Automatic annotation (TrEMBL):
One of its GO terms (molecular function) is DNA binding. Residues 1-20 are annotated as: Disordered. InterPro entries: AlkZ-like. Keywords: DNA-binding. This is Winged helix DNA-binding domain-containing protein. The keyword Chaperone does not apply.
Length: 387
């Protein structure tokens, strides 16, 4: 798809401020960069690289996230890449577990470590429990020693550390260790359909290579813009969990193009990245829980309204699975399994037109074929709008 300026762009308060991008223009740009305008023929490692990881605190959402973006994806494609260590699960952006490539594990973790440290010591119950009682360097060294020969569950790691600090709860010690050290979640965690407790190993031992000593923050920001932009400084900070990134963007100006949104906020972007026509038609899409497209901007109006955002973000931190109609979140979905089969329940926020309902039914059948291939019976049920 050729890159061209959206038809809705216009000058804003002087020629140096850059053209204005409407909400629909930003929506189409985001969909294009997130591989959602059409399914792509990409390998899973290449796709995860392009997306700069997928949020993955639950095992299955990254599979659905890749299925909705890639042509012909099989569950085994993702599971195999986790098994051979091409992909791994580790806390990085937003101090949250992501599925990332081995290379990105080695570069993104040291770049996001300041945010992880901040989240541990500021407001964390575990941080409060160990602060002033446990020396962070000593804790990290003790955890690394405990993990030297084997992967450990959270409970096992915590109990091993309690041998040194018996007055601190094991869960607090384990959480602090996971924050201070680059610990990956090893298989079978993350393998579709396989249960079991989370087990940790150090990233260095699991990947057989050290973390990158001096990774480039500039490169991380440029990759974010390619995958999510155009974006404000606050957007970059929301995605990464890092703060004080204005000087980084300012230093990159000569390598970037700039726009404005409808509120006059400055948007940064990488040259050559897609800016489709805002009027371009787009297919319906099912997104998994925690999909990055809903979590990676301070202003998320380019993909979901504030009212609908409150519907899908729960108080206990769950981000529900959603579907897109005309590129915007228009409802939620859930897949229920029982002995008789699998039911895809679709809950629209407002009445759907006949064409959109038919498109969701067709795409829902594909989702069931992927996520519930072993079910004897498939069914799709629509809830009343706004229920």
């Amino acid at each position: 798809m050729a890159t061209r300026m959206p038809a809705s762009s216009r000058p804003h308060n002087g020629e140096d401020d850059g053209p204005v991008l409407s909400t629909r223009a930003l929506n189409r740009a985001l969909l294009a960069r997130q591989l959602l305008l059409r399914r792509h023929r990409l390998g899973v490692v290449d796709a995860v690289t392009r997306l700069v990881g997928l949020q993955a605190q639950a095992p299955n959402p990254p599979y659905i996230g890749l299925w909705t973006r890639l042509e012909g994806l099989a569950i085994e494609d993702v599971a195999g890449a986790i098994g051979d260590r091409s992909l791994t699960r580790i806390a990085v952006m937003r101090s949250t577990v992501h599925l990332v490539t081995a290379q990105d594990c080695r570069t993104l973790r040291p770049l996001t470590q300041p945010a992880l440290d901040r989240d541990l010591w500021v407001g964390s119950g575990s941080g409060k429990a160990v602060d002033g009682v446990v020396d962070p360097a000593e804790l990290a060294a003790a955890a690394r020693a405990a993990l030297a020969d084997t992967a450990l569950t959270t409970a096992e790691l915590g109990e091993a550390l309690r041998q040194r600090w018996p007055d601190v709860a094991a869960r607090h010690l384990a959480y602090a260790a996971r924050t201070l050290l680059p610990l990956v979640q090893v298989p079978p965690r993350g393998i579709w359909g396989v249960g079991g407790r989370t087990r940790y190993a150090t990233a260095e031992s699991w990947l057989g290579e050290p973390l990158v000593a001096e990774p480039s923050l500039d490169e991380m920001v440029l990759r974010y813009l390619a995958a999510y932009g155009p974006a404000t400084v606050k957007d970059v900070q929301t995605w990464s969990g890092l703060t004080r990134l204005r000087p980084v963007l300012d230093a990159l100006r000569d390598r970037l193009r700039t726009f404005r949104d409808g509120a006059g906020n400055e948007l940064f972007d990488v040259p050559g990245a897609p800016l489709p026509d805002p009027g371009q038609s787009v297919p319906v899409r099912f997104l998994p829980e925690f999909d990055n497209i809903l979590l990676s901007h301070a202003d998320r109006s380019r993909i979901i309204s504030d009212e609908d955002r409150r519907r899908i973000f729960t108080r206990n931190g769950i981000v529900r699975a959603t579907f897109l109609v005309d590129g915007f979140v228009r409802g939620m979905w859930a897949l229920d399994r029982d002995r008789d089969g699998a039911v895809l329940r679709i809950e629209p926020f407002a009445p759907l037109g006949a064409a959109d309902r038919a498109a969701l039914t067709e795409e829902g059948a594909r989702l069931l074929a992927f996520a519930a291939a072993d079910a004897g019976v498939h069914d799709i049920r629509f809830a009343p709008p706004g229920g």
